[in-house]
Each structure stands twice: as C-alpha cells, then as structure tokens.
Amino acid sequence: MTWWSDLVTSEPDFAARVRARFAVRKHGTMATLRRDGSPRISGTEFDFGDDGQLRLGSMAGALKALDLRRDPRVALHCPTEDAPEDDPTAWPGDAKISGRAHEEPAGEDGSHRFRIELTEVVLTRVGDPPDHLVIESWHPDRGLRRRSR
After folding, report:
1. For 53-98, what is each residue's pLDDT tens digit?
2. What are the UniProt keywords, alphabetically (predicted)?
3. What pLDDT digit, counting tens, does each position of 84-95 carry?
C-alpha cells in the first residue's frame, strides 16, 4: 500500500504542488461508485495530516461513505480555480488523486473517516510557453512521468 507520506518522500516537490492545488479552497470533489456501478459525485473536505496521511470524512450515514464501504475505489479532484479573464494562460492548473479508501474508527458523532491509499496522482497545468498543457502523473510502481499535449 502507498500513502501520501510515500509520495512526499519520493517526490517532495510534486507532492507540494499537488497539495497546494487542493489547498486553494476548503471543498473539493470526490467520485465514488454506487451500488449499481454508476458514479456518484460529492463535495468533500480533504485533510493532508501532519502524520503523512491523506484523509476525508463525511457525516454519519452519508451515501458517499456507504459507497466507500462497499467499494473503496475513489477519485478526488481539487477545488477549481479559473484563470483571470485577461490572461487565460495564467490558469493555475488542477490536481487529481485516485486511490482506495480505508475506513478508520468513527468519530463520537458517528461520522465516517477514511484514509486514502494512493494509486495515481495527476497534476495538469499550462506549459511555458503557454501553447500546450503539461501533465505530470505519479504511480506507485512507475514513479513520476511528465508529458506535454
């Protein structure tokens, strides 16, 4: 299993840039799988803890938590930020994390908490010169790769 701390150890600069994209606002987006296999998109908060773990939570009985109990596959997307209208090339980019959710003990209020095992981390941004996108992706078995499009 690969955790956020493993990414920070192997690729600290990349991890810092991904975390910065997730830190632009409090709420991001997460995708889970419903019982019938169709996707569910939910808002959520992310916690990049001091202990090197990436966690997320939800209220007791939330459908997204029940989805994760049934099928732990999850995709996380950072909060979205638009480029300034006067300079579309200044788009700050976005980050995505795919993984598996591992449930931790519930809070006193019955809320759910999950620690995220990483299976893929992707950072997309405008290149320099700004005529292409730069896509950096990290996988536990392959490491960091960079390509332009």
Report:
1. 999 999 999 999 999 999 999 999 999 998 888 887 888 899 999 9
2. Oxidoreductase
3. 888 878 888 999
Residue 32's CB: how many other CB atoms inside 10 A?
23
The pTM for the full model equals: 0.94
Domain range spanning residue 110?
4-148
Mean pLDDT confidence for 124-138: 91
CATH number of the domain where residue 144 is located: 2.30.110.10
Q: Which residue in this structure is represented by tokens 């005529």? A: 131
In degrees, rounded to 5, the angle at the alpha carbon of residue 13 between the alpha carbons of residues 8 and 15 is 45
Pairing of strands 94-104, 27-33: unpaired
Count of domains forming the chain:
1
Token digits of residue 137: 């992706």
Residue 32's DSSP bridge partners are: 40
**Contacting residues for 61 by C-beta, under 8 A, at least 6 apart:** 110
Count of CB atoms situated within 10 Å of the CB of 29:
15
Output DSSP code: residue 142: T
Please state, in angstroms and as integers, the Cα–Cα distance from residue 47 to each residue in 16, 44, 84, 88, 144, following that order.
14, 10, 28, 30, 23
